[in-house]
Amino acid sequence: MSVIVVFLLVIAGFAGWWLSHQGLTAKPWLEQGMAGDFVDLDRSPLPTAKIGLGVFLAVVGCLFSLFTSAYFMRMGLSDWRPLPLPRLLWLNTGVLVLSSVALHCAVVAARKGQIDNVRLGLATAGFTSFAFLIGQLMAWRQLTEDGYLLAANPANSFFYLITGMHGLHILGGLIGLGRTSVGAWNGARPERLRLGVELCAMYWHFLLFVWLCIFALLAGWAATFIDICRGLLT
């Protein structure tokens, strides 16, 4: 249970930081200016699509927190045999970081109206995301060839389940990234393109954060972190 609490606190902190940069803390009743300047004050400063994606990501965060909790509870039993972490996962992590950085650059370019840089950022993000998925499949193949099969041990099952679920979310995100890329090449309206790029970046930054948590979990670092937290609370 403490694992869920810690994970949700981290998610809440991340969400709070993001919301603080979206203008939700503004106090329009304290603003000064002409009355006509405040016609749209009753509208949310966030597009509906961003709010919807934020809710979806909160649900995804809860899902992975439950996986994490189950992982910690199951690893305490005597039949748990942790499998070695493939070195390829380090490379895959770097590739996913590059994907997130590319989308951040695309967001900056979209806000400046630099369409060529937007296209470059989207193409780079798509290429590196596919490379990440291919790398994950190669890591799976390496483990199975070494005898770490899905049903051989509960630790193996959790590894394939958690990494596979994360990979499915990346695959789903590629659909949205593809639609945004098509709009970038077909001359979509600047405000619509900017929103699409920002949504993709928001999704990718979150999945990068989730992957870093998964990587720490599989490497055993998360267990050490939880023990430290428990020691501080007691």
**Order of helical and strand elements:** HHHHHHH
Count up the helices: 7
- Poorly predicted parts: 22-31, 33-44
The count of DSSP E runs of length 2 or more, i.e. the number of strands, is 0
Principal-axis shape equals elongated
CATH class call: Mainly Alpha
Would you write up a description of this structure?
- With 234 residues, this protein is mostly helical.
- The protein has a single domain (2-233), classed as Cytochrome c oxidase, subunit III, four-helix bundle (Four Helix Bundle (Hemerythrin (Met), subunit A), Up-down Bundle).
- The protein has helices at 2-20, 48-74, 88-112, 115-145, 154-185, 190-219, 221-233.
- The chain starts with a helix and ends with a helix.
- Mean pLDDT is 82; it is low at 22-31 and 33-44.
Q: Which helices and strands, and how do they pair?
A:
Layout: H1 2-20, H2 48-74, H3 88-112, H4 115-145, H5 154-185, H6 190-219, H7 221-233
Helix pairs in contact: 1-2, 2-5, 2-6, 3-4, 3-6, 4-5, 5-6
In brief:
The protein has 234 residues and is mainly alpha-helical.
Keywords:
Four Helix Bundle (Hemerythrin (Met), subunit A); mainly alpha
